[in-house]
Amino acid sequence: MQTKRMTFPGRWLPYALLAPQVIVTLVFFIWPASQALYQSLLREDAFGLSSSFVGLANFSRLFDDAYYLNSLSVTAVFAIGTTLLSMSAALLLAATVNRLLRSRDAYTTLLVWPYAIAPAIAGVLWWFIFNPSIGIVPYVLDMLGYRWNHRTSGTDAMLLVIIAAAWKQIAYNFLFFLAGLQSIPQSLIEAAAIDGAGPVKRFWTIVFPLLTPTTFFLLVVNVVYAMFDTFGVIHATTQGGPAQATNILVYKVYADGFVGMNIGSSAAQSVILMAIVIALTVIQFRFIERRVNY
Amino acid sequence: MARIKLEGLKKTYAGGVQAVKGIDLEVADGEFVVLVGPSGCGKSTLLRMVAGLETISEGRLEIGDSVVNDLEPAQRDIAMVFQNYALYPHMTVFDNLAYGLKNRGFKRSEIERRVQEAARMLEIEDFLPRKPRQLSGGQRQRVAMGRALVREPAAFLFDEPLSNLDAKLRVQMRVEIKQLQRRLKTTSLYVTHDQLEAMTLGDRLVVLNGGRIEQVGTPMEIYARPASIFVATFIGSPAMNLIPLDYLRERGNGLLGDLPKSTDIVGIRPDDLHMQAPSGPHLVVDSTLELFEAAGAESHLYVRLAGSDQPSVIRTAGQPPVAEGETLRFYVRREALHPFNRKSGKRTV
Question: Biggest alpha carbon distance in chain B?
Fold first, then answer.
């Protein structure tokens, strides 16, 4: 394909045009990231008066720390749970809305709204709904014979944060799934119907395989979301408790750094997180370039 | 193998629009029937109603000996070839062909045998391990046909299967479809807007207009005796010339007295306008040659009738005897006239 080439006169105009983007990246990404890298190699004394170079001691200490290893597995459970819940719920909604004709736009608009809500607000909302003393869900569960208390039960707490984090993301996934479904030609579905496949079989043998590029993209986006953007949800609901049960990596970075004031360890944790997000991004680009399936 | 019988079939959409306004048709076992008409005439809707992809608002549909109005597409024992082929892009050609058989619980060995046989028949054996995107338009078309015939259904339904191919390939596939149908003798219903495709493929044509049947007949019957002005101008290329009867009467030809009183317009095929006087009773008309169009084996002369604004087309071979702008005299045999009534649109005799 031929692309049009623009040539700018002078030496400075191209730099001037690039400058805003470069400055934003430098100030808000490169500088803090390099600070984190630097900090992760230092250890501050108890009064915060001086810091000394300790090499990789912060990292090796982390991997000996039972709390940190616990946080890794908690994060894995949380990320997988949130991703599965938000994607399957979104796919179900998208498949349902896609069958509608006239009311499709109305439902789409309504279903997208939760995405506009800040994670902290979403957290507060679900904290309220699931509040063991005044919430509606524990009240209903109690009638069914289950005593919900996410303040004492780690499982309940994990369920709560997964639901709260997934709910917000459903809107986003829904939009992508709906667009994916709409790009599947109707005649394929009709051909499959004539070929003797019922609605469920059609979905799993034709529709779902054709959605794989969308599904894979969303999988990566959702895992990244669950691991990095859910600080607000945790902070508004469980604050990592009870007993570290919902203390995911990104929340631990905050808690250790700004509550525990262990800057070196916190920086080391954020460097590890950064490595994880880079790895996920690499995987995503690899796969998207191959277009996954067909 | 089965006959298809349509009785008073109607399709009304939720908005009250009636796309199909009562169709009665019987397709005999093994017959190749082509539904032809302009876009929006309801031909595709009708085919989709037979396939079970559109619900039937009114009427009865029989395939074989049973009424299938309320059966799912899969239960009607039909196979359909779509305009865009509708191949499953994530499956190999083999899996595309095998999908319908797998869904019906055929044994693996039987699937293998049938797919190989269909592939051999359509000469796509080499493509079986490929994905559809690795195939050309013509090859995809063959795969789509293969998917229909592995199932050995009671009837084939074709929805404009050739319209995505280029002109040369279209002619080639047209011949192949015809040969294949002759060989398999499977009842076929074929939808097209291309009158040439319709004429060459069909044992019988059904000309549709505005959701109704205009005429049913063999291609030659329809060509020789179009039942309405619509059919007359739709079938045949270039289209039939329509000339007011009064104009021809004024030319002083006493030949037209025996036409029914309701006749007010006369159709004449472009091939029936001759530049030499034929034997037998005929009309003589003068015109001005406006444009000469050479198309190889044949040429088209666009003329305007003398003393009138009426344009007409003459189909002939070779060069016209006069230059553009000069007067051209032509002759029409009395038998070549198709008398119509303009108001009803129907043939008068």
Answer: 77
Q: Do B90 and A195 touch (CB under 8 A)?
A: no
State pLDDT tens for residues B295-330.
Answer: 888 899 999 998 888 889 999 888 888 888 889 998
Helix A263-290 and helix A31-39, axial crossing angle in degrees, nearest 10: 130
Give A 238-257 residues with CB within 8 A of chain B. none
Amino acid at position A37, single letter: L
Pairing of β B241-244 and β B66-67: unpaired
| Total-model pTM | 0.80
The pLDDT tens digits for A30-42 are: 998 888 888 888 8
Gap between the Cα atoms of A237 and A230, Å rounded: 11
Q: Per-residue DSSP letters for A41-94? A: TEEE-TTSS-EEE-TTHHHHHHHH-HHHHHHHHHHHHHHHHHHHHHHHHHHHHH
Residues of chain A in contact with residue B78, where contact means CB-CB under 8 angstroms, are: 194
Task: Name all domains of chain B by residue range, CATH numbers in brackets.
Answer: 4-234 (3.40.50.300), 241-340 (2.40.50.140)
Which CA distances in Å does A36 have to A29, A64, B243? 11, 21, 90
**What part of B 129-158 touches A (C-beta under 8 Å)?**
131, 133, 147, 151
The beta-carbon neighbor of B80 closest among A185, A194, A293 is A194
ipTM, two decimals: 0.84
Domains and CATH numbers, chain A: 57-290 (1.10.3720.10)
Buried b (16+ CB within 10 A) or exposed e, A169-197: bbbbbbbbbbebbeeeeebbbbbbbbbbb
CA pair distance B238, B179, nearest whole angstrom: 27
Do A187 and B82 make contact, defined as CB atoms within 8 angstroms? yes
| Rounded Cα gap, residues B93 and B89, in angstroms | 9
Is the Cβ–Cβ distance between B240 and B233 less than 8 Å? yes
